[in-house]
């Protein structure tokens, strides 16, 4: 939190953080991801120039779980650019269906997918079916998130 507070509302400091996060060695990237998530959620406008780079980061082989978790967490909490929704949807849907993915990455991915489905209701059917298939085998965290999202999506059908 000291680093988050140090960066605060300073775009130059955020840019330096993003350079370390995107191009730093493995351990620095891993540790910077948490700071990036807090700074980006506090100042979402800072993230605009980095969306494509974050997507590229998610596609890297052997990406650390913490890096994935923090990027997808940010995506779940901020407004996403329209032109990248398809790519973000594909990545998050892949995470949601992956057998070996962490609970946190799956849970945040569900939230991102829900946001996209609210904008594009024609995608709901696929997401709802996938979430319903997960419930019998999911952890308590996945099941709780799944039920909340299914409830929210069913409300959307009534509107």
Number of strands: 0
For the termini, the CA-CA separation is 41 Å
Regarding quaternary structure, what we see is single chain
**Main pleated-sheet profile:** none
Spans of 5+ residues with little confidence (pLDDT < 50)? none
Question: Helical proportion?
Answer: over 70%
Question: Based on helices, strands and strand pairing, what is the structural class?
Answer: mainly alpha
Strand percentage? under 5%
Name the average pLDDT.
95
> Number of folding domains?
2
User: What letter string, H or E per element, gives the SSE order?
Assistant: HHHHHHHHH
- Report the total helices: 9
What integer value in Å does the Rg equal? 16 Å
Overall 3D form: globular
Task: List the main descriptive attributes of the protein structure presented here.
mainly alpha, 159 residues, 0% strand, globular, single chain
Describe the secondary structure blueprint for this structure:
Layout: H1 2-7, H2 11-23, H3 26-42, H4 51-58, H5 65-77, H6 85-97, H7 103-119, H8 124-134, H9 140-158
What features would you describe in this structure?
By secondary structure, the protein is mainly α. The chain has two domains: 1-79, no CATH class; 81-159, no CATH class. The protein has helices at residues 2-7, 11-23, 26-42, 51-58, 65-77, 85-97, 103-119, 124-134, 140-158. Helix 2 (11-23) runs antiparallel to helix 3 and helix 6 (85-97) crosses helix 7. The chain is globular, with a radius of gyration of 16 Å. The model has no long low-confidence stretch (mean pLDDT 95).
